Every structure is written in structure tokens, then in C-alpha cells.
Amino acid sequence: MVEISTSILSTLKGKEADTFFALEKAKTDYFHIDVMDGKFVENDTYEKMLAYSSYIKRISNLPQDVHLMVENVKSAIDDFLAVEPNIITFHYEACKNKEEVMEIINYIKQNNCKVGISVKPNTPIESIYEFLPYVHLVLIMTVEPGKGGQTLLKDMVNKIKTLKKYVDENGLEIDIEADGGINLQTAPAVKEAGANILVAGTAILIAKDFKVIIDELKQ
């Protein structure tokens, strides 16, 4: 069974508390925090997500899965460490060189947090192979990052398969997370390809009953 990380990006204003409590009751495994700075990606959700993340920390014990889509990774890590997330994922493309990638990996770990590395759709998965022994999770963007409600790019299913094969062949223990366009129609192919954590936002939040969708996505 896979785990579900629910993106709270499209939470309705004024319905935050109801939504977060309902998601916990529906047994989402993580709250997925989509942090965007308006530079690395078009949208800017930074302050909103910091507020949501702080609020969730006060009302829930569920782990937070923080996804940084930002240029200034170190500064964002410092801001979000305050909410004691379970994992912080940063983008390979936000780093100037391989040394910086390793610096960020080590910095997150030094702060008692799991570390994830993410790649955009156009970045070859092979680019991050050398970092896999040092991370807990790889997040494969199955849409172009920056906004919710997009359609999954089918080529990304093969990318997940390629990564899963490499992970198995090299005896690595890491989670593979897929993010973007995940719904009841697209989830089976993504799971079959090897993803064991699915990020879903719109598909869950537009449902009348969060638990029904979360349960179906997990199966």
C-alpha cells in the first residue's frame, strides 16, 4: 500500500481548520506543503504556506512533507525548520553545482530532518543518481512545478520506472514520491511504475468525502 501526501495548496480561504482536521480524520499520511517563491516558479505561496505549516504544527501531529520550489534554498530551510517537518525536499535545479547539492543535503540532515531531492520533468533522472545514497526520498515532478490542478505528463511514468529499477539494482532504501496530476485515473500507472508516496491535492480537496478518495488512492 502506498502513502498519501495531501497538498494543501488549493485549500479554500476560511476553510483551513475544517480542511486540515478532515484530512487528518481521513488518514492522509502527510500534509504536503508546496512552498513557491515566485522566482524559481511563477506562483508565490511562501508566506501562505509558512502560515499554514505553523498552524498545522499547532493543531496536528501528522508529519509535514515540505516541498521547496525556491531559488534561495538555505533561507527557506531555515524558515520551515521551525515547524519541525518530517522531511524537506529541495530542487536539484535550484543548486549552482554538485557541491551545493551536497551542502544542502547535509544541512537538512544536521537539523534532524529527513531530506528529499526533486527533479523537474525536463531534468534527466540520471542527474541525481550520485546523491541517492545520501537522501531519504526522491520527488519526481509529474507536471511542471508551480501550480495545482495540472494534467500528469505520461512520460514521467517511465522516469519513475527508470529510477525504481536503479534503486532496486543498487540496493538503495529510498522513497519515490510522485507529484502532479495524481488522481484515481492516473494513480495506478504511477504506483505500478514504483512510486510509494503519491502527492494529491485537487483530486482530494474537491471530493465530498476525503477518506473515500484517500483510501482508493492508497489501494
CATH superfamily: Aldolase class I
Largest sheet: 8 strands, parallel, barrel
Distance between the termini: 6 Å
What overall geometry do the principal axes of the alpha carbons give?
Answer: globular
User: How are the strands of the biggest sheet laid out side by side?
Assistant: 1-2-3-4-5-6-7-8
How many discrete domains? 1
Please identify the structural class as seen in this structure: alpha/beta
**Strand content range:** 15-25%
H-E order? EHEHEHEHEEHEHEHH
How many DSSP H or I helices?
Answer: 8
What's the rounded overall pLDDT mean? 95
Number of strands: 8
Question: Can you identify the CATH class?
Answer: Alpha Beta
Helical proportion, percent range: 25-40%
**CATH-defined topology:** TIM Barrel
Describe this structure in words.
- This protein has helices spanning 16-25, 46-59, 73-81, 98-110, 155-169, 187-193, 202-205, 210-218; strands at residues 3-7, 30-36, 64-69, 87-91, 114-119, 137-141, 175-179, 197-200.
- It is built from eight helices and eight strands.
- With 219 residues, it is of the alpha/beta class.
- Helix 5 packs parallel to helix 6 (187-193).
- The chain has a single domain (3-218), classed as Alpha-Beta Barrel (TIM Barrel), CATH 3.20.20.
- The N and C termini lie close together (6 Å).
Protein topology:
Layout: E1 3-7, H1 16-25, E2 30-36, H2 46-59, E3 64-69, H3 73-81, E4 87-91, H4 98-110, E5 114-119, E6 137-141, H5 155-169, E7 175-179, H6 187-193, E8 197-200, H7 202-205, H8 210-218
Parallel strand pairs: 1-2, 1-8, 2-3, 3-4, 4-5, 5-6, 6-7, 7-8
